[in-house]
Amino acid sequence: MRNPRAWRWLAGAALWLLVVGLSPWARAQETLSVPRFRLEPVASGFVQPLWVTYAPGDPDSLFVVEKVGRIRRVAGGQVDPEPLLDLRHEVSGGYEQGLLSLAFHPRFEENRTFFVYYTDRQGTVRVVRFRAFPDRYAADPSSRTEILAIPQPAANHNGGMMAFGPDGYLYIGTGDGGRAGDPWGNAQNLSSLLGKVLRIDVDGGEPYAIPPDNPFVGRRDARPEIWAYGLRNPWRFSFDRETGDLYIADVGQENWEEINYAPRSSTGGENYGWNIMEGRHCYPPGSRCRPDGLVLPVAEYHHRAEQACSITGGYVYRGSRYPELRGWYFFGDYCSGQIYVMETPGMAGNRGELRWARALATSIRISSFGEDAAGELYVTDLQGGGVYRIAR
Fold first, then answer.
1. Could you tell me if 91 and 111 are in contact, meaning their C-beta atoms sit under 8 angstroms apart?
2. Phi-psi region of 9 (alpha: psi -120 to 50; beta: other; left: phi over 0)
C-alpha cells in the first residue's frame, strides 16, 4: 500500500456509492426510460416570475405571478399592460419572501373570485381574497378580504402554494417558520399553522369555515385547519387532475430533497416527518429516530449526487398534445436547472418506491411549474424572467 491516502479516498468513494449512488432510490433512475421533451418559450420580460396558472372558464389566458408583488395576464403571446393585481407597495420581496401564489376559485367564471398568498413588509404570511371586475382582468380594490394572517418568526421557509382540491376546498402549504432545523418545532406542533398543509372551506363561512372531515377537528391541542403536517418548506404541491392524487415537494435541509404522495382516498392527518427526518433519513444526520407513524417520501435525491439543492414540485402531465408524456410527474431543481420525470403509482404498479430520472438539463432557475386549462405544462425562470411550455 504505497499511498494510504489514495486507498482511504477510494474506500470513502466506494462507501459513498454504496450509501447514495447505489441506494434503491438511485438505482431506480438508472433503469427508467423517459420520454424526450424540450422547453418552448411562451413569454418573457417578467420580474422574478415564480408561478403560472390559468383561470377556470378561460382557455386562452395564462396568469404569471411576479415575486415582487404583481400578477400579469398573457393572451395570444402578449402581456396585458394592466395587471390583474399589483401589491408591490405592500409585499416584502426579499430573500424567500414575496407574492408566492395565486389560486382562482373553481367558479371564477361566475364569481370572479381569486386568492393570493404573500408576505407583507413585516414578514407575516397573508392569504387574501379579491374579486376581479366583471368586464376585465383587474382586481376590485374594494373587494379585498383577509382570509388568514400567519406570523413568521424568520424570513425564510414561507411555503406559498395554494390550490383548490377536487373536493372544492382550498389547500394551503406553509413553511416551518425558517432558520435551520426548525428550531421552534413548528412542523410537529399541531397547535401551529406552520410546516403544514391546511384545508379550508372558503364558501362555507366568512372568511372561511372548517371542513367537518378535517382530521383534527374537535381536538383541543390541534388547529382544525390542518390537513397534513411535518413539512419543512413545501415548494409547490399539485393535484393530479385525472386521479385527484396529491403530490407535495418538500425542500430539504442539508442533504435530501423529497416528494410526498397522498392518494385521493386519503382522509388527511399524514405526518411527513420533518424535523424528525429529512427525506427517509434521521435528522440531524447520525441521530437515531423512530419512523413509526410517519409517511415517508415516495422519492428523494441527494444534494451532492445531483449537484442540486432545492426541489421545485410540479404536475402530472394530463394534456393532449403529447400522449407519450401522459401520466408522468414532472419536477425540477432550482439550483441545478435539471428537470426530472417520475412514475406515478398506476405506472409503477402501486409500489411504495416511484422511479424517477433526469430528463432535461437547462440553464434556468426553475421557480415553478404550472398548468393551463388543457393540462399542458409550463415552467417559470425566476432569474431570466421567462415562461416556457413543455413541448416535444
1. no
2. alpha
Of 305, 349, 162, 339, residue with least CA distance to 238: 162
Residue type, 113: T
For residue 196, which of 255, 126, 272 has the smallest C-alpha distance? Answer: 272
Domains of the chain, residue spans: 35-391
Whether 165 and 186 have beta carbons less than 8 Å apart is answered as no
Write b or e for each residue in 347-377: b if 16 or more Cβ atoms lie within 10 A of its Cβ, otherwise e: ebeeeeebbbbbbbebebbbbbbbbbeebbb
Half-sphere exposure of 284 (CA within 13 A, CB side): 4
Mean pLDDT of 211-222: 98
C-alpha cell at 100: 408566492
Does residue 5 carry a pLDDT above 80? no
Q: Please tell me the distance from the alpha carbon of residue 227 to that of residue 50, in angstroms, as a whole number.
A: 25
Classify residue 324 by its DSSP letter.
Answer: G
Which grid cell sits at 168?
Answer: 372544492
State residue 95's pLDDT score.
86
Fold of 35-391: Neuraminidase (2.120.10)
With residue 7 as reference, give the H or E element that holds it: helix 4-16
Running DSSP on this structure, what letter comes out for residue 305? H
Residues 128/101, Cβ–Cβ less than 8 Å: no
**Residue 195 near residue 176, CB atoms below 8 Å:** yes
Please tell me the predicted confidence (pLDDT) of residue 14.
42
The mean pLDDT value for 228-232 works out to: 98
pTM above 0.70, yes or no: yes
Three-state DSSP state, 325: helix
Q: Identity (one letter) of the amino acid at 188? A: Q
85: region left, alpha or beta (phi > 0 left; psi from -120 to 50 alpha): beta
Contact 267, 213 (CB under 8 A): yes
Those residues whose C-beta lies under 8 Å from the C-beta of residue 137, and which sit 6 or more positions away, are: 55, 61, 73, 80, 82, 84
Cα four-point dihedral sign 186, 165, 237, 349: positive
Residue among 199, 171, 196, 197 at smallest CA distance from 186: 196
Residue 32, pLDDT score: 86
Answer whether 169's CB lies under 8 Å from 211's CB.
Answer: yes
On whether the CB atoms of residues 70 and 93 are closer than 8 A, the answer is no
Contacts 24+ apart (CB under 8 A), 183-186: 184/153, 185/275
